[in-house]
Amino acid sequence: MDATQIVASNMGLLDLLHRRPRAGPIPRTEPGGIVAPPPGPEHPSVDPGIAACTVDELLASEAELLQRFKYCYGCDGETFERDIVEPIRRYAGYVNLLPATADNYFCGAGGLFRLGLEVAFFGLQGTDAHIVSGRATISVRKDLEPRWRRATFLAGLCSELHRTLCAATVMDEQGDEWPAYLMPLTTWLARRKARRFFVRWIANAPESRGLSLFALPHIVSPESMQELAAANHVVVPQMLASITGIPLLHEQSILIELVKRSAALVIDRDLAASAHRYGRPILGAHIERYLLDAMRQLIAAHPAWSPNTERSRVWLGAEGLFIVWPNAAAEIRKVLEDDELRGIPKAPETIVEILTAAGVLMSPPPGVTNWSILPPGSSTALEAVRLMSPDILLTGQARPVEPLPQSLLARSSPTPARAHTTAAQVAAGAAPAAAETRAPAPPRPGVDEVAGAPYPGQRAEPEHDPTSRRALDPQTPLDFGGNPDAGSAAPSSPSELDASVPQHLASPPPTTPPSPPRRFALNAPLRLVPQVRQALQAAIESMNADPRAAVAVTVGAGVFVPLSHFKSCSVDVNVALRALVEVDLLVGTKDRRPRTYQHDIGGQEQAGVIVKPGHIHGLDLSDFQATA
Q: Which of 437, 475, 481 lies closest to 459 in space, CA to CA?
């Protein structure tokens, strides 16, 4: 091998050793304009946050959809820029790359922006197939139609705007929180010179759609609102009713129906297209609002849903609001099918599951699927679902509904082996006796003892002295059907025995079934903080189980709940006290300051609060002391 070959061989070896690695795949751009992070651990130990994005980058990522907006709106460039592009720019600046949900539909970065755009587009597209203000003259309709189309677009764009104010908090890298009521997210990030932001989702946050009104001025300028309201008094109210989720009763609105239908379509498509969600569907994530809207429509317009009328589906009594089920499910489904909403469940059981998970319905007692009610005029008990509060459906109704004075719950006969708590025990906070079985009734001389057969409800057992029966329960008197003072003396001979037994005792008399045990449930205002409501409801529900394991106990003034229970439910005690005082649930509050009490629970002295008995279903208010 000559020198030239040796040099070439060495250069080839050096090239092999110093060869640069082959370039990897180019990072793809997500729909929201985000560069995908480099490969790494699937679950990082630290929240990486979301990279901030400019408004121009957001609009560039949705250029194709903006072009479809232009074709759909059909106007000159200046009008399109003013009516469509400008609100979209303001919306993009307000939400930036916020996700719409934590782990559900449109949960990726930029999901809220994409969700608003798609709902707005399909709503705007739907206006081409409808005639709005059909009863007006042609000239009036000509003036109103552009305003209706623009209002439908804005209502769809801001349909989920409330999520920025009630579902999550946004912080920058220094931990400062975004003041969502004061300025758009993009403006705040620019002032803070923050390159990333972090989202903290609020657990069990209630859907407060009315909060959208406080963010709406950041999206729709006052000049645009004035243009929509010019020469009419219907466009702006209908648009705001759609955004806040509070429709105007007795007034049909095509705008509201279009936005509602578009949102259901868009969300259903995203859920079906999200491959990472296959195998673990999230039940009824967006359906409860449509189910409630359908029930409100039925109560307002359907004769069979008029509360407390003959053969009605809806009954309001002392225990709360009940809806006959599953009879009502078919009518709810019919309303939703007429609205052409996507993703609506068919089975009544699924509807109940969705509404129960959303906190609309109260779970029935263990062992049964529905509540049993006995409305006036009904000879048989009906199955029904029970709402957490009647205000969920009856607020805003034109005709006020008065609750029935009598109880609606059907009284089923419990088993004889069930203990009962007397009114005195409830008032004193005493638990039932440890023995859960009632002492068996005494035998009747000459009937059960002579025949040698067990009396009704008695288990066959060896003979023993009658005084041992008295030892079972000293408070249970022996009833031999004769003189109560006879004691336990038995006849001394068969002839005396026959003479001592009246004729009417030859066959067992009919027995009256005992009254069913009380069931306790919380009846708190809707504005109570959800976390505090759940913790307090769990404490009240524990009174229906083993008394020795109950968290809450009755005292002279109400129901005592220890503060340690709120800590065990991960609820801050100060937050719980403040929330309970605001809805006036506690005994002894003065100047909006809660008062705590000491009570013995399980042999330990604990600090706690006393809930007013009027907020607990199942308590007899006459058993308690009058409190302020």
A: 437
Distance CA 603, CA 306 (A): 51
CB 59 within 8 A of CB 92: yes
Query: Closest by alpha carbon to 417, among 443, 440, 442, 434?
Result: 440
Residues 6+ apart with CB under 8 A from 233: none
Backbone angles phi, psi at 116, to 5 degrees: -65, -40
| Beta-bridge partners for 601 | 604
- The enclosing H or E element of 522 equals strand 521-522
Strand partners, 168: 201
pLDDT per residue over 568-606, tens digit each?
888 888 888 888 888 888 988 776 778 888 888 877 888
For the chain, the residue count is 628
Task: Quote the pLDDT of residue 2.
Answer: 52
Closest CA relative to residue 203, chosen from 530, 589, 626, 567: 530
| Residue 203: closest CA among 535, 542, 526 | 535
The C-alpha atoms of residue 399 and residue 300 are separated, in whole angstroms, by: 9
Is the peptide bond prior to 184 cis by the omega test (within 30 degrees of 0)? no
Query: How many Cα neighbours within 13 Å face the side chain of 330?
Result: 4
Distance in angstroms (rounded) separating the CA atoms of residues 437 and 432? 11
Residue 24 banded pLDDT, cuts 50, 70, 90 = very low
Could you give the residue ranges of the DSSP H alpha helices within 158-234?
Answer: 163-166, 185-192, 212-215, 222-229
What count of Cα atoms within 13 Å lies in the side-chain half-sphere of residue 552? 26
How do residues 373-410 score in pLDDT, each as one tens digit?
A: 888 888 888 899 999 888 888 876 666 788 888 888 88
